[in-house]
Amino acid sequence: MNILVVGDLMIDHYLWGSCERISPEAPVQVVDIAKETAVLGGAGNVINNLKSLGAEVSVASVIGDDENGAELTGMLQDISVDTSNLVIQEGRHTSKKSRIIAVSQQILRYDKESKDDIEAASTKNIVESLKNNIEEYDAIILSDYGKGVLTEELCQAVISLAKSKNKKVLVDPKGKDFSKYKGAYLLTPNKKEAQIATEIDIVDENSLTDALLKLKQECDLDISMITLSEDGIATYDEKLHISPTVAKEVFDVTGAGDTVIASMAYALSLGKSIEDSAAFANLAAGVVVGKIGSATVTIDEIKEYEASLHKSTSDAHIKSFEDIKRLVDRYKVNGKKVVFTNGCFDILHVGHVKYLQVAKSFGDILIVGLNSDESVSRLKGPTRPVNIAEDRAYLLAALEAVDFVVPFEDDTPYELIKMIEPDVLVKGGDYEGKVVVGTEFAKELKLVDFVDGKSTTKTIEKIQGQTC
Predict the structure, then answer these.
(1) Cytidyltransferase-like domain: from which residue to which, for each copy (predicted)?
(2) 168/234 Cα distance (integer angstroms)
(3) Which is the catalytic residue, given 66, 138, 258, 403?
(4) What is the DSSP letter of 231?
């Protein structure tokens, strides 16, 4: 899919250092700068979110003929964003916000930017450019940061052009007058912004519905939407729908609005309903508010987050070698402790469950390697397994203690352990004094005693005894 982002672009620039003295020239701190970083800000954060979700992205905006404009263009091209709709306006200052950080504390910010409305000629250039390629886009996002790009003239021109080609326009609005966005598919104001724009105090479902209806009617929207922070996302087509929030921990809400509109556009472009798109956006927002700073989210992170909320099916927890390698690499980067164990798990019983619960207690993520049907037969005899691998994997993946199940074909999980390099390798207590395959790839080996009298073999014997 290809999504067009139109809006205010900026560079978020950071100067990182330490402060150990006061200037002799004035009572101010002296910061020794150790490093500089720069990331896309404003509408650029929407672009980053779309890219991380896997979308192709094009951008339309106005920048200055200055050093910051050249830097910003390069940053966009570095992440393969189509910049053919960028317009350079002579004399305009490209937005750059510089922050000085000392000992993890922001002590100063200084901005260089133009906030005046863009010139009529710039608007005309953008519109003429979009007339030639509007059909290429699956959705259009207007990301308004109030820096002068999204004038009423440009907004209405883009919305009119998009509607003529049956393209959805989603708007992250700014200010208290939303009339310049009239005719869009939906707006994504938060509760405070919606209250100001509608002059309705949202205190219950009735007032929420009134605000949604007023926005829908006055702005001629297909769908009316208000984000409600910890209460989720409210939408209104023919009736009120509320998609409840799914955030477990909130560390920083910076950029959450950008994530919501990016994920809504992404989901709608896939043909999802407005309710399903709102649920998807809630999951995406739940991931990013658990991170520090303006953040992005990937499809894998959303799937994992959904799984952690026990809202996913067992299928989502069954992974291939390739999938688990990618997941493990990211978990390790984020400081998560990975635990691995394996087995046949032919007839799941209480001994298995208690063993897996203990294994999970040794870390953050429990991965279970599962012997294929052929390897179970080689290990246990021709009458085994009783249950096929697909069924065994599904049942294991349904357990709360198990994060992922990875089937393997060999008699031992040597290659799987070698690839994962777990922090903790767990085996049954009957391996005391024996060689455990893959130990050399794990940081630690833990042996867990089985529950007395509980085993697949004994279960089968009991069943056979009762049926004789």
Answers:
(1) 340-453
(2) 19
(3) 258
(4) G
**Number of C-alpha atoms within 13 angstroms, CB side, residue 388?**
1
Q: Where in the chain is the domain with CATH 3.40.50.620?
A: 314-467
Encoded tokens for 153: 């003239």
Confidence of residue 151 (pLDDT cuts 50, 70, 90): very high
| pLDDT value for 468 | 45
Question: What residues form DSSP beta bridges with 409?
Answer: none
Residue at 70: amino acid letter: A
Residue 46 near residue 60, CB atoms below 8 Å: no
According to DSSP, the β-strands at 29-42 and 9-22 are antiparallel
Residue 334 has pLDDT above 80, yes or no: no
pTM, to two decimals: 0.69
Task: Show the tokens assigned to 38.
Answer: 């720069």
- Cβ–Cβ under 8 Å, residues 183 and 157: no
Residue bearing tokens 């246990």: 380
Choose which CATH entry (2.40.30.110, 3.40.50.620, 3.30.160.40, 2.40.50.90) describes domain 314-467: 3.40.50.620
Q: Which two tokens stand for residue 311?
A: 């809202």
Q: Which residues are annotated as a binding site?
A: 190-193
Residue by residue, DSSP assigns 360-371 as HTTSSEEEEEEE
The answer to whether residues 79 and 117 touch, using CB atoms and an 8 Å cutoff, is no
Kindly report the CA angle at 210 between 198 and 218, in degrees rounded to 5?
A: 50
Which stretches of 65-151 are assigned E, i.e. beta strand? Answer: 82-89, 95-102, 105-112, 139-143
Pair 83, 60: CB distance under 8 Å = no
Neighbours of 35 (CB within 10 A): 9
User: Collapsing DSSP states into helix, strand and coil, what is residue 4?
Assistant: strand
Q: For tokens 């139109």, name the residue.
A: 6
Strands ordered across the beta sheet of 29-42: 29-42, 9-22, 95-102, 105-112
- For 345-355, letters b (16+ CB in 10 Å) and e give bbbbbebbbbb
From the number of C-beta atoms within 10 Å of its C-beta (0-12, 13-18, 19+), residue 260 rates as buried
User: Helix or strand or coil: residue 1?
Assistant: coil
Let me know: does 392 contact 346? Beta carbons within 8 Å.
Answer: yes
Instruction: Copy the structure tokens of residue 404.
Output: 């992922």
Which ranges in the chain are annotated with CATH 3.40.1190.20?
A: 2-308
Q: Is 252 a catalytic residue?
A: no
Average pLDDT on 239-251 reads: 69
